[in-house]
Amino acid sequence: MSKLDRTDARLLLTLCDVPRATGVHLASLLGLARNTVQARLARWDQSQVLGRIDRLVSPRDLGYPLRAYVGAVTDQHRLEAVIDRLRDIPEVTEVVGVSGEADLHIGVSATDADDLYRVAGLILAVPGIERTTVSVIMREAIPYRTKPLIERLADDDGRTSR
Length: 162
Known about the structure:
The protein is α+β, with helices and mostly antiparallel strands. It has helices spanning 6-17, 23-30, 34-47, 79-86, 113-124, 147-155, and strands spanning 66-74, 92-97, 104-110, 129-136.
């Protein structure tokens, strides 16, 4: 069940097109009451519906043009400690738990191949990581996105099946 409704989706789509719009401007664009818009923005803030702003900053623009995923096999009994240690490595941009050959996929950014080698070594040195594999990102074919899902919700007429 979605936490958001069609009005939320319309607001989000407008923010996709006009990201710096004020609550008053959004209300005007969508024909909604300013209080309705403000209440929804406040609810999103409180429930952390919107992602963090740093997610929108490209590592390339910060001087880290090389990106990779490090697959890590871990000692399952130390998984939370491993994740805590990975937080301490600035070049680690994300960590997700996965099923399959690896236990974690670790997104990293580096300045060049030598720097990637250094970062991969830092990851491998984390107690509880047993082995790693590195896959360099050659190009980003489809960047992280949710707009098509927001559009689906905005167009949804109450149907629950797809």
